[in-house]
Write a structure and sequence with these properties.
The structure is a single chain. The chain has 365 residues and is of the alpha/beta class. Helix content is 31%, strand content 17%. It has helices at 7-18, 51-55, 61-64, 82-98, 114-124, 147-158, 247-255, 273-284, 321-328, 338-349, 355-364, and strands at 3-4, 31-36, 66-71, 104-108, 131-134, 168-172, 175-178, 183-184, 193-194, 202-204, 209-211, 236-240, 260-265, 288-293, 330-332. Strands 1-3-2-4-5-6-7-10-11 form a 9-stranded mixed beta sheet. A 4-stranded parallel beta sheet has the order 12-13-14-15, with helices on both faces. The protein has a two-stranded antiparallel sheet with strand order 8-9. Strand 4 (104-108), helix 5 (114-124) and strand 5 (131-134) form a beta-alpha-beta unit. The longest helix is centred in the first third of the chain and has 17 residues, at 82-98. The chain is elongated, with a radius of gyration of 23 Å. The two termini are 34 Å apart. Residues 5-20 have low confidence and may be disordered. The chain binds D-glutamic acid. D-glutamic acid binds next to loops.
Length: 365
């Protein structure tokens, strides 16, 4: 399960025995560990590539890092369960805790829900060393497979001292994006991973990795989320807003035992008229409602109601007791997209049921 690639040692031996000049001690290569979870990067026709296949697929690796690896899963990203997320976060924390000399960790993933896995790790890995999530858009049986190239770039970023303290990073297509900001924007194109509001964090060129900025929101080493003993995450569902959307779907989610609902609101957080009745029902049952936007970008201010809701910009002037209750269970997603707001709400609800605390969490992460 845990293997070390000897490529770099073999090369060093060749250099030492073949050289006429006196041997000069070379600085040790940074050590990077790869945790493979599957996805298109491994999805070869006739059988998936193993972690070992991936680790031996990168010409030039011997100049970048000494790589160890393990097979954690080998599935499509959308098949990873919440329990497996918790196990993965624990495994990454354990790898760092046990090996202080490890430079960084690369996690391979399918791209469909890669941004969710990356953001979950961004909140639950509690170490400043880089964790880099890597995938590919073309599978290994396809002409133009870019998995090995993305993986090598991911290893280089994981080995990069300036990547320390920047949280979990997503590397594909020569670009580094923050797990907090990145989203898959196209079903097929190679340039699919984008950070719509905040932009790319860095680039990977042949000569070096260049990172352009820091992240001011809390993450990794500064995160308060400790999943060491967490066995399950509270149920949180995402509900899309569209014209004619009904309250009964929201009521059903509440009756199924959800602890939170993220509304993928229209524009700055508007809901359909009928959905408001469902949200009043949710608040009555003590279910938290986080308002996000379905537009893909933009910040929802913490106005305790969302646009159109009580206290919101287009909300009613007088507030009834039901609306007051709704307000007491309403939180703004700030600039988190709905699927990421869901992850943050699950982790928040695992530690608190205080509305102001939950809003603080959304404002700080
Ligand atoms: N698109 C891939 C993913 O996100 C699915 C391919 C596969 O590994 O089966 O995981």
């Amino acid at each position: 399960m845990f293997n070390r690639l000897r490529v770099s040692c073999a090369l060093a031996a060749v250099v030492l025995t073949g050289a006429a000049a006196p041997a000069v001690a070379q600085p040790a290569l940074p050590r990077v560990h790869m945790v493979a979870t599957g996805g298109t990067i491994s999805n070869r026709d006739g059988g998936r590539l193993s972690a070992e296949d991936l680790a031996t697929s990168m010409p030039g690796l011997e100049r970048a890092a000494t790589l160890t690896y393990e097979q954690f899963l080998n599935v499509a990203s959308s098949q990873i369960t919440l329990e497996q997320w918790l196990q993965l976060a624990r495994r990454v924390n354990e790898l760092f805790a046990k090996d202080q000399g490890l430079a960084g960790i690369v996690v391979t993933s399918g791209t469909d829900t890669l941004e969710e896995t990356a953001f979950f790790l961004h909140l639950t890995v509690r170490d400043p060393r880089p964790v880099v999530v890597v995938g590919s858009m073309r599978n290994p049986s396809t002409l133009g497979y870019e998995g090995a190239a993305n993986l090598l770039e991911g290893v280089r970023v994981a080995a990069e001292p300036t990547a320390r303290g920047k949280g979990v990073l997503v590397v594909l297509n020569d670009e580094v994006n923050s797990a907090r900001d990145v989203t898959k924007t196209d079903a097929l194109r190679l340039q699919t991973f984008r950070s719509p509001t905040h932009g790319v964090l860095g680039i990977v060129d042949r000569d070096r990795v260049t990172l352009f900025r820091d992240l001011l929101q809390r993450h990794t080493a500064k995160s308060e989320f400790d999943v060491t003993r967490l066995t399950a995450l509270p149920r949180v569902e995402v509900v899309m807003v569209y014209q004619g959307a009904t309250a009964d779907v929201i009521k059903a989610i509440v009756d199924l035992g959800a602890k939170g609902i993220v509304m993928a609101g229209a524009g700055a957080g508007a809901t359909s008229g009928d959905q408001n009745a469902g949200l009043d029902y949710a608040a009555e049952k003590g279910v938290f409602i986080v308002t996000a936007t379905r537009t893909g970008a933009g910040r929802i201010a913490p106005n305790r109601g969302g646009q159109g809701g009580p206290g919101g910009p287009n909300g009613p002037a007088t507030v009834t007791p039901a609306q007051q209750r709704r307000r007491a269970f309403s939180v703004s997603s700030e600039d988190h997209i709905p699927v990421k707001a869901r992850i943050l709400l699950m982790l928040a609800l695992a530690t608190t049921s205080n509305r102001d605390e939950i809003q603080r969490i959304f404002s700080e992460y």
